[in-house]
Amino acid sequence: MREGRPVRVETRHSIQNTPTGTDCSPPTAVANVSQYACQRRTTTENHNKIFTDVMEELAESSEFNESKGPCLAFRQAASVLKSLPSAVHCLKAIQGLPCLGEHTKAVMEEILTFGRSFKVEEIRCDERYQALKLFTSVFGVGPKTAEKWYRRGLRSLQEILTEPNIQLNRMQRAGFLYYSDISKAVSKAEAKAVGCIIEETVHWIAPDAILALTGGFRRGKEYGHDVDFLLTMPEMGKEEGLLLHVIDRLKDQGILLYCDYQGSTFDVSKLPSCRFEDMDCFQKCFLILRLEQGQVEGERGLQRDPGDSRGWRAVRVDLVAPPVDRYAFALLGWTGSRVGLDQIIVK
DNA sequence: CGGCATACG
DNA sequence: CGTAT
DNA sequence: GCCG
């Protein structure tokens, strides 16, 4: 759902070509891939990492070169390959798949033949690519800022921090401050612990509030880069103000390290029906929370060398609060599958 | 050959 | 404008 | 770069 955007429902979205099973691949593997990411199978396992890593590097490189089109194309190619149920062993296996054109297939062929892409290896060696990749790995730093720093001759994060003439904005300050934590994967146990904190906070404010884990952890992933939740109230309109209230409470608890709140842009009267499925319009917030090690299952009580660890880590957390009548739909959008609400709601 | 998302600080 | 999802 |  993070990838390709709106979905206009057309007939061609359903299965078209059932490739005749010539050698290499199971035809079933290929038949069901939609050109739209949100209609694609979302798997926990990526069976084509050797290809998708390269596609994502090509996308990144394109982005650094301000080639928006190619960047999007490579991202979509990576997304399609990630959605496949098994590893691609020969090019025949990807016949008829969307977003995989001549260039992409040539790169894949190279990888199948030599186990590597020479074009990508060149990119990886490039000093500019390396620096921009490093800079953009900081939360709040995008291609433009990274480029600006690169042109000033800066090459390392240390140089950014010691350069006196650089003014970081609030997001970037948080990005540097919690850099190592935010770059680190969030474990399922940590996601659960965050879930408990959010749940306790939410239900202290409104005992009947409905909270659901979404995103990668909802789909059963073992690790993620953030933790996502949907939040609403059973009675229409009561969700108004809830999110800001939750944020206040997190502040009071002293665990809110960063907060970016975005009010709702959802307006029935102004909304064309085609944006029915646009979930970006609900009120939401992007947070960085302080998670105590003691709250994480499996870390409880075990205390290593004092001084070595500070006893907590920072975690990126997203909360989205749609009105209840949009809730089920939003959930569908975030999880990619229809499941009973009861098995999704936290606790 | 044009489009490729959009809200916010 | 730049970054985020 | 891919698609229509």
UniProtKB/TrEMBL annotation:
Organism the protein comes from: Oncorhynchus mykiss
KW Magnesium (keyword) present: yes
Entry GO MF terms: DNA binding; DNA nucleotidylexotransferase activity; DNA-directed DNA polymerase activity; metal ion binding
InterPro entries found in the cross-reference section: DNA-dir_DNA_pol_X (IPR002054), DNA_pol-X_BS (IPR019843), DNA_pol_B_palm_palm (IPR028207), DNA_pol_lambd_fingers_domain (IPR018944), DNA_pol_lamdba_lyase_dom_sf (IPR027421), DNA_pol_X (IPR022312), HHH_MUS81 (IPR010996), NT_sf (IPR043519)
Subcellular locations according to the entry: Nucleus
PROSITE patterns per record: DNA_POLYMERASE_X (PS00522)
CDD domains, per database record: NT_POLXc
Keywords, alphabetical: Magnesium, Metal-binding, Nucleotidyltransferase, Nucleus, Transferase
GO cellular component terms, A-Z: nucleus
Keyword field contains Magnesium: yes
Cofactors that this protein relies on: Mg(2+)
Name of the protein in question: DNA-directed DNA polymerase X domain-containing protein
Span of domain DNA-directed DNA polymerase X: 46-344
PANTHER family listed in its UniProt record: DNA NUCLEOTIDYLEXOTRANSFERASE, DNA POLYMERASE TYPE-X FAMILY MEMBER
Main location: nucleus
Xref: Gene3D superfamilies: 5' to 3' exonuclease, C-terminal subdomain, Beta Polymerase, domain 2, DNA polymerase beta, N-terminal domain-like
Family: Belongs to the DNA polymerase type-X family.
One GO biological process term: double-strand break repair via nonhomologous end joining
Compositional bias segments (type: Polar residues): 14-23
Basic and acidic residues bias spans: 1-13
Coiled coil stretches, renumbered: none
Binding site for Mg(2+): D226, D228, D318
